[in-house]
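Hello,

Our lab assistant flagged a job as stuck in the queue for most of the afternoon. It eventually completed. Since we weren't sure the result was trustworthy after the delay, we are filing this so someone can double-check. Below is the sequence as submitted and the structure that was eventually returned. Let us know if re-running is recommended.
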Amino acid sequence: KKEADSYFSTPSRTFTMKNGFLISSSGIDESNADGKYILWPESPQKTTNDIRSFLQERYSLKNVGVIMTDSRSVPFRRGVVGMPIAYSGFFSMKDYRGKKDIFGREIKSVRSNLVDSLASAAVMVMGECDEATPLAVITDIPFVEFKQENPSAEELSFLQVSLEEDIYAPLLKKVNWKIFGKE
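-- returned structure --
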């Protein structure tokens, strides 16, 4: 509760909002932690930007992207999937609006969320148990457009959907969200 931006509890589980994500237990993990708890960095975006900068300088790389990941549950699905906590070095979305589909019909509203898809693929490769694979390298993805600067505040906020425009708003608005220390 203390790590969450807001939370609500049921008799069997606590659900949390953390950095714009609905995630169990504020992303706190005790698997692969040898009896300790692993928390997200205090500033995931700054940490991700710093890692990308380090890789560029250390290995003289021009085009490199970094995604910090975690796993989460998805409603009505068993198992976990990867999710991005933060990313840097590439455009997070591929915009198909105005393009033609295979039948020549113009696409009106589709944007592909590259960062979420890549995060899920990376977590699948890294594993969830004893694989001991702390990172994944994804190469030869022609539709990823790299950029030299860190994501702007505008780009980061574009990925987040406000409660008012979220398709799950009718459900989420019924929850009595609480903030630690203000219950």
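-- support follow-up --
The delay was a queue issue, not a problem with the job. The result is valid. The first strand starts at residue 6 and ends at 9. Helices lie at 44-59, 114-126, 153-159, 169-172.
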